Amino acid sequence: MTVRMDPTKSQRTGHAGLAWHAPNLAGAETLALSSPDFEHEHAIATVHAATRVGGENLSPALTWSPVPADTAQLLLVVEDPDAPTPMPFVHCLALLDASTNSLAVGGLDVAGPAEGVRVLRSGIGSGYFGMAPPKSHGPHRYVFQLFALGTPLAERAHGATLDSAKPRDVLTTTGHVLARGRLDGFYGRN
Q1: Which of 21, 83, 116, 140 has an alpha carbon within 20 to 30 A of 128's alpha carbon?
Q2: Helix %, strand %, coil % for the chain, to 5?
Q3: A Pfam family in this protein (predicted)?
Q4: Could you give the C-alpha distances from 134 to 9, 10, 52, 125, in angstroms and in order?
């Protein structure tokens, strides 16, 4: 069952600010990104939500089609464009080894990320931050975006180390995208 957004609900950031629409992250949409935990444009289970809203803060399992042979590393971005914030809220930012082709449930946990995963700073702390939309704000869209980078990210972004840099600073310094894929899901609280 597809979840529909209610346009009468309060303020939302909007999709224009997603990493997906950044000119420096444009690339061929040739990666098929999917999850055994939810279908594209469908609801995401509460287990993947933040603990403060009754979830377990577990990132969903992800899998994707083969990346181009000259991929240096992968950049995974999870954003909420329906957050009542100036820019989409970043729920996770992570670098993955180019040889990685899937993540198990919980693979983006900062305390024990999956092999080949380097979790970076998100909107709150580091690692995966589960869904926690405001009550009665309607369902929020969560956009999982995977970018195959032709060159590795520099270890510094806008004067900060890559691990401590703000997500937007990392995203604006990223470029040379060889391929990309996207998976959208919904979660809301009454």
Answers
A1: 21
A2: 10, 30, 55
A3: PBP
A4: 11, 10, 12, 19
Residue located via tokens 């590393």: 73
- Strand, coil or helix: 16: helix
For 99, 108, 110, 149, 181, the CA distances from 115, given in Å and listed in that order, are 11, 10, 12, 19, 21
**How far is the C-alpha of 46 from the C-alpha of 53, rounded, in Å?**
9
Tens-level pLDDT at each residue, the chain (190 residues): 444 444 434 567 778 889 999 999 999 889 999 999 999 999 999 999 999 999 999 999 999 999 999 999 999 999 999 998 889 999 999 999 999 999 999 999 999 999 999 999 998 889 999 999 998 888 999 999 999 999 998 888 888 888 889 999 999 988 799 999 999 999 998 7
Question: Under a CB-based contact definition with an 8 Å cutoff, are residues 99 and 115 in contact?
Answer: no
Query: The whole model's pTM is what?
Result: 0.91
C-alpha to C-alpha distance for 57 and 33, rounded to whole angstroms: 21
Using CA atoms, how far apart are residues 140 and 168, in angstroms rounded to an integer?
20
